[in-house]
Amino acid sequence: MIKRFDHSVLRQRLGWWLGLHPVQREVHCAERLAGLGLPVVPIESCGIEGGRGWLMTPYAGPSLQGVLERREASRGQVRAWSRALGRMTGAMLARGWWNRDLKTSNVLVDASGGLWMIDTGGARRTGGRLERPLRVMARLLVKTATQDLGRPLREGERAAFLAGLREKAPLAVSVLRRASVPL
């Protein structure tokens, strides 16, 4: 698969020369995350041609988003992938990294059902500070709770949502409290 970067030619050439081009960042982040034992699709080659940056990876499978949208997986498989994504996120955080672009469209499913990250240029060191990743995770929890309703949670619903979380996922409640995200 080939990914192209469409910025102005001058910006791309200057960025490449300075070592700040998004291709260079993505290669660096992919190597670092893979070196930490995380499942990252390897980048086979990269470069800049005609002033446009590109990188090439092997085909690893369809995106998780596509598989979920086409309903090609059983409920059990979806649960297994959810746990795998949680372990992947936890492993990144435990190693001091966070990928702000980790989403189902940037996760590929291989032939055996394994998950692989792509588009790792958004990975950053946490520097021991987890506030931002926790805020993102807390917002996802709230978004999940409100998605089916199509509106914000009301006061009584907030209490029921929190009670359900306390029972099923005590860690999620501590994430919400630590991130100071109001429900």
Automatic annotation (TrEMBL):
Gene3D superfamilies: Transferase(Phosphotransferase) domain 1. InterPro entries: Kinase-like_dom_sf (IPR011009). This is Uncharacterized protein.
